[in-house]
## 1
Amino acid sequence: MGPAGRSLGTPEWIALFGDETAMPAIARHLAALPRQTRGAAFILCDPADRQALLHPPGLHLHWLNRGTGDTLCAALSDLKLPASTNRLVWFAAEKTQADRARTLLHDLRCLTRQETHVTAYWRHDTS
């Protein structure tokens, strides 16, 4: 059935970022987007965890390799945002990464809270 969650609405452009824990939600969101949606999805995982995901033809999938040091926040920093006001950046990963993504999106990139959805799916235990 896939995870429940907030609908993304119908943005003209979207960027989705997530690690393995977010892959079910990303797959659900990609499959539900209208065909004319443009944008990109960035998924951080081991190469063995890659899978075919249904998505609009104008949305590009980027597989980030955990083993080579790729990070979601580096990809987010490099993201070229369109000028469109009907855009959304969705981010779900470890709490430290989610906190950094909020700073990148709101403080540095000046996106509004309506243009973003950032969720911490898990917390790295440092004890």
## 2
Amino acid sequence: MEPFTVLTSVAVPLDRSNVDTDAIIPKQFLRKIERTGFGKHLFHEWRYTDYEGTQENKDFILNQEPYNKAQVLLARDNFGCGSSREHAPWALYDFGFRCIIAPSFADIFYNNCIKNGILLVRLKVEEVEELFQYVLKNKGAHVAADLENKVVKAGGETYPFEIDAFNRECLLKGLDQVGWTLQFTDKISAFEEKLVKETPWLK
């Protein structure tokens, strides 16, 4: 994963509540175990007017400039609800999103995103509404997510947010849980060697 420190990007206002993982990446595209290649199917039924995905829906915001290159997604309550499919954050990341801001997220989706390098920011409902109004009134407006200082900045306003210390550290260093564990390979090996010497019957 790429380390996440500060990200400044155009923000996409996706004005929908209860966006579930089937809307994020429909079930017919869950045929691969690789993490790449899912971005083209992100929000498939909203982005395209045909099943094959060859005709773009010009009214959907992600098909419009400058939102089609955005890395920050503004959403409403309960984003990522539904099934626990990890393909949802894979599709969001592959499309280019590195940060999602909303009042609330489904728990499993939240954890899956963190493990895949996407910062999820929970803000108060009224704060998210302020961000929506700002980016809607200023097309192409940028929002900055500063993980080091745990703040979001936009339109001259600053919005502090909270994040678990371990998740923050992993994102800052660009590590998933496996990568975090591998930092301690020497200590793990030393412990195993000591354990074999002290309890050889367990070998």
## 3
Amino acid sequence: MDFESLRKIQEDSKRVDALYQIMEENSRLNRSKAARVEFFTTTTYVEKFLKEGDRILDLGAGAGEYSLYFARKGYEVSSVELASANIEAFQKKITKEDKIHLIHGNALDLSCFEDNSFDIVLLFGPLYHLSKEEDRQRCIAEAKRVLKPSGTIFIAFILNDMVILTEFYYRPEFFLENSYDHETFKVEDFPFIFFTLEQTREMLHNAGIQILTEVASDGVSELLEDKINAMDDESYKQYLKYHLYCCEKPEMLGRSNHLLTIGKK
């Protein structure tokens, strides 16, 4: 499987499964200090809302980085993942002590869970891949359904306007390419689906999600990857502190590859 073959797959679920045969998700959040910024920020915010005994649902759990982190802190975690390669990588990490219920499934159908079952729902992967608005709304509706009335939902998006700079970082000729609209600057939705900040807000408004907080979860860490990775531990600690200081500022929200939205139903 290569990216040209991937383009020919029309069904979202089949394309996701094929994508993660190509892309290596297992180390995405832990391969370096720069890569760890997103994980650190996300877990910091989730832990602000966690209470002892809470049940967590991790939708689009990938190779299990978040699920394992919270399970090893004593929480009961249910994890749903679509891609076979990610399921295989995840299963290899689970020990008998981990309180994780791993399901090879689709976030569009959570019928295996009852209404109002979870205190925390992590919706970190599915909206990267759902190409149709009706499917995105269905996904959020299912996540809402299984969330307790008092619960909190955490939703991740990939931001169109920062992706442009990230692509330019890797490919200096990017602005001459036809992989984006040269007037609107909308990036081609491949291999992921990209949104502007306003589009994420509109989507969640239409889904009946009350937005509590928005967070630039990785900020400019990918653009500064070499410099961040070269930091000593004390410098890196201070960089993370700086990142938390500014990641909620309105002027920073669009300057991040990933946006974390925290909400209630």
